[in-house]
Fold this sequence. Notes:
CATH topology of the largest domain: Chitinase A, domain 3
Largest sheet: 4 strands, antiparallel
Strand order of the largest sheet: 2-1-8-3
CATH class of the largest domain: Alpha Beta
Structural class: mainly beta
Number of domains: 2
Oligomer: single chain
Amino acid sequence: MTDLETVQNNAVVQMAYNLTVEGEEIESNTLEYLHGHGNIIAGLEVPITDMRVGETRDIIAKAKDAYGEYDPNQVVTVSRAAFPPNFEIKLGEEMRLRDSSGRMFTAVATSLSEDSVELDMNHPMAGKDLTFKVTVLSIRQGTPEEIAAGRLGGSCAGCSGDCSSGCG
């Protein structure tokens, strides 16, 4: 595999980052992804373009280019009867739920009554500007399989053969 000089589309980028939100460090980790395919938030991916191995940048991803603005329409009230009888609902904690069509989603219960549950389906970082300190650790050309799949890990052949199922 070919090492590249700078971050560009179809490059596999490994980076170390620190994420700070509202002055508090939320996460410090490493990440490897295929650049230019929307595998990370745009507010981080775009400013990394053209960085070199060893280069460090401070990047502010505005809410609209991160997890979006907070949308009050994403707060809904549902009947408590929509939950299985023994399902424990904890206020303020993320829950993985399935709607009547079988689609999975994440929500946080923001209020409970005997008859209803208020669910906030906004991403926990919605409406927040994110501050990253990013250092590029390595850059290589993506393989033809990675590029065709638009992500690391190759094709979706292991999960029904097409990516419309949302695998990966």
